[in-house]
């Protein structure tokens, strides 16, 4: 890889009217004196980010004990793909992505970016790699004293770009994120979604190969979240930008990710493509994310009556997930016919994910029969989660 970042991005004919302005020759102002960071021969074709048995331990300090934040994490992120990393608070998500752009160093193992061991880089070589990795944040991290234009311009100023190059590129980026008319506005004059668009434009300023997203939609309302995820998906597809995104929301993963990693207590407990995670989750933590999501969407009166424990003679509320649009009826009627277990359907949804059908039913089953019913569903390759119980 040379210092010419612009050559590494595909230029779509018309992502937006002025996207052709993207190639602005930033390479000319890069650290030409820095030793070029070369891709290693060992990098697998198509693999942009690789975690190789990565451990991260934060040492004890004062009264605080040592924290083992990541244990032997091995993962590959394909060039041009979107990988969603989901986990509960403290699972190690932020630590994982901070290792990619060298904000932190692993205690053991290696993090490779385009075949280069990021943990081994310092000084100019580190900065050169960091310019290939954009980052966006939950609270946007914009400079309040700079306009939208000047915030996006900042990484280019640091890279030493000339004024004409900066103007051309920043205007193209603001146009790309739909903020051409806000270029002279300060962050305090922008909505949350607009601030994140500025953050995305800034992250793209140095024409990176990868974008790290640290809970970038967590502070936004659902509609704005959708529009930001749409924008990220567009830049992923059109610019072939690799995205590593961390979140604690399955809806975010579903909207954008090709592959999903579930982190728990610093370890990868599940890793599959997005369709498999949604239709056949294997780990209890993954199931708990779906149960929480489904629980939030229950009718209010049912939600209010839901208890964590089964009562004698009560009903258990379950979510039953199907991998095809048609399997549901056959499996449900078999449950009733063969096992004489009645099932009361509360709601049913059919949708597509990654171009494939999937559906889920929220239903209640007599609590005394729930274990038998769940075992039956498992035998038939149907995933279930218990959402709670009603008396
Ligand atoms: N600089 C640090 N010094 C000491 N411990 C740290 C440091 N950074 C993170 N940790 C600890 O490492 C563990 C993982 O933290 P991390 O921030 O990666 O989790 P997370 O999954 O991103 O959580 P959240 O969703 O709450 O942001 C936690 O126990 C945290 O307290």
UniProtKB/TrEMBL annotation:
PANTHER family: AMINO ACID IMPORT ATP-BINDING PROTEIN, METHIONINE IMPORT ATP-BINDING PROTEIN METN. CDD domains: ABC_MetN_methionine_transporter. Involved in beta-(1-->2)glucan export. Transmembrane domains (TMD) form a pore in the inner membrane and the ATP-binding domain (NBD) is responsible for energy generation. Part of the ABC transporter FtsEX involved in cellular division. Important for assembly or stability of the septal ring. GO terms for molecular function: ATP binding; ATP hydrolysis activity. Belongs to the ABC transporter superfamily. It comes from the Bacteria. The keyword rRNA-binding does not apply. Residues 49-290 form the ABC transporter domain. Keywords: Amino-acid transport, ATP-binding, Cell membrane, Membrane, Nucleotide-binding, Translocase, Transport. SUPFAM superfamilies: ACT-like, P-loop containing nucleoside triphosphate hydrolases. It comes from Undibacter mobilis. InterPro entries: AAA+_ATPase, ABC_transporter-like_ATP-bd, ABC_transporter-like_CS, ACT-like_dom_sf, MetN_ABC, MetN_ABC_transporter-like, NIL_domain, P-loop_NTPase. GO terms for biological process: amino acid transport. GO terms for cellular component: plasma membrane. This is Cell division ATP-binding protein FtsE.
């Amino acid at each position: 890889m040379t210092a010419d970042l612009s050559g590494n991005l595909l230029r779509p004919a018309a992502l937006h009217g002025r996207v052709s302005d993207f190639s602005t020759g930033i390479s000319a102002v890069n650290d030409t004196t820095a030793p070029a960071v070369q891709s290693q021969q060992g990098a697998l074709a198509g693999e942009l980010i690789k975690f190789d048995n990565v451990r991260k331990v934060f040492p004890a300090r004062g009264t605080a004990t040592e924290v083992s934040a990541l244990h032997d994490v091995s993962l590959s992120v394909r060039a041009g793909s979107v990988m969603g990393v989901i986990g509960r608070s403290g699972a190690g998500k932020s630590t994982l992505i901070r290792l990619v752009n060298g904000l932190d160093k692993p205690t053991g193992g290696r993090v490779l970016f385009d075949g280069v061991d990021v943990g081994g880089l310092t000084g100019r070589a580190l900065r050169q790699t960091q310019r290939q990795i954009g980052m966006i944040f939950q609270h946007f991290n914009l400079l309040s004293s700079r306009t939208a234009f000047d915030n996006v311009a900042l990484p280019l100023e640091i890279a030493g770009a000339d004024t004409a190059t900066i103007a051309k590129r920043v205007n193209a980026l603001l146009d790309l994120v739909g903020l051409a008319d806000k270029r002279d506005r300060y962050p305090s004059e922008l909505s949350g979604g607009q601030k994140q668009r500025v953050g995305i434009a800034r992250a793209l300023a140095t024409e990176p190969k990868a974008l790290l997203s640290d809970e970038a939609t967590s502070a936004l309302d659902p509609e704005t979240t959708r529009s930001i995820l749409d924008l990220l998906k567009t830049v992923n597809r059109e610019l072939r930008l690799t995205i590593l995104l961390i979140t604690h929301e399955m809806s975010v993963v579903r909207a954008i990710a090709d592959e999903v990693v579930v982190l728990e207590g610093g370890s990868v407990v599940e890793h599959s493509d997005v369709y498999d995670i949604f239709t056949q989750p294997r780990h209890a933590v993954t199931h708990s994310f779906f149960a929480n999501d489904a629980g939030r969407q229950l009718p209010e009166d049912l939600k209010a009556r839901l208890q964590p424990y089964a009562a004698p003679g009560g009903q258990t509320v379950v979510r039953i997930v199907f991998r095809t649009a048609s399997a549901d009826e056959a499996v449900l009627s078999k449950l009733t016919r063969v096992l004489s277990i009645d099932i009361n359907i509360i709601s049913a949804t059919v949708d597509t994910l990654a171009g494939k059908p999937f559906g889920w039913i929220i239903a209640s089953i007599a609590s005394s029969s729930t274990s038998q019913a769940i075992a039956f569903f498992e035998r038939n390759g149907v995933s279930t989660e218990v959402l709670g119980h009603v008396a």
